[in-house]
Automatic annotation (TrEMBL):
Segments traversing the membrane: 12-29, 35-60, 67-86, 151-170, 177-198, 204-221
The protein's name: Branched-chain amino acid ABC transporter permease
Compartmental location: Cell membrane
PANTHER family: INNER MEMBRANE PROTEIN YGAZ
Primary location recorded for the protein, binned into one broad class: membrane
Organism: Marinobacter halodurans
Pfam families, per the entry: AzlC
């Protein structure tokens, strides 16, 4: 074990173990699958919040299309993360695929904020270890949660609120970064409208489509004024 990498990822361990356990408990209590299915899912998919969302959707018999759309929208931000790291991953060889696969919000934060040296190969090795350690924490947490959820009888009512709490935290963090309430209000309005007018099996996709179209329209109509303002400033 690389102690320096372990020390660097220690905060992730304290977050991933309990949240992974919550996912594992949800997996075995909400779905009719063996406990080790949670382990396999964490090894093969490793989507964190996406896995919790998938379990919640499958538990209410959502269609595979709804699950796909929801996971794609939830994890679309990773496309931008990956683009910003293409230069850093160049020449990583066999490690490159895993670095891309294992990229999460927390891993991205560590990779972009830690001190780096001029030894590219050594730094890419450390990047791979950081990614591997972080996924290991998630796999351990989800395995423990799934095993305990199957082996110990307890009332898991309300544990699915972990997903709601997680998204509340993500929303707050996004607000801190963007400093804008408009996307939040658009999302809330889209969800409310979908609940009011669409059947239950179409509400999620409807809300996602409405929110996405509204945000694109807002961007389309506000972009020219920003560009114009920049041009006037440059001419001034």
């Amino acid at each position: 074990m690389d102690r320096s990498v372990f020390k660097l990822t220690l905060p992730i361990l304290f977050g991933y173990i309990p949240l992974g356990m919550a996912f594992g408990v949800l997996f075995v209590t909400q779905l009719d699958y063996p406990w080790w299915g949670a382990t396999l899912m964490s090894l093969a998919i490793y989507a964190g919040a996406g896995q919790i969302l998938a379990v919640s959707l499958l538990a209410v018999h959502a269609s595979l299309l709804e699950v796909f759309v929801a996971l794609f929208v939830l994890n679309a931000r990773h496309l931008f993360y990956g683009l910003s790291l293409l230069g850093r991953f160049r020449g990583a060889g066999w490690r490159k695929g895993y670095l891309i696969f294992g990229l999460t919000d927390e891993t991205y934060s560590l990779l972009t904020s830690r001190h780096r040296t001029d030894d590219t190969e050594a730094e890419q090795r450390r990047d791979s270890l950081i990614t591997l350690y972080n996924q290991s924490y998630w796999v351990i947490g989800s395995t423990l949660g799934a095993w305990l959820g199957r082996a110990v009888n307890f009332d898991s009512t309300g544990i699915e609120f972990a997903l709601v709490a997680l998204f509340i935290v993500l929303t707050i963090e996004q607000y801190k970064v963007l400093g804008q309430m408009l996307p939040i209000w658009i999302g809330a309005a889209a969800a409310g409208l979908s609940l009011a007018i669409l059947p239950s099996d179409q509400q999620l996709i409807g809300a996602v489509v409405l929110a996405t179209l509204s945000l694109l329209a807002h961007y389309r109509f506000h972009r020219p004024s920003v560009s114009a303002g920049s041009q006037e400033h440059s001419h001034g």
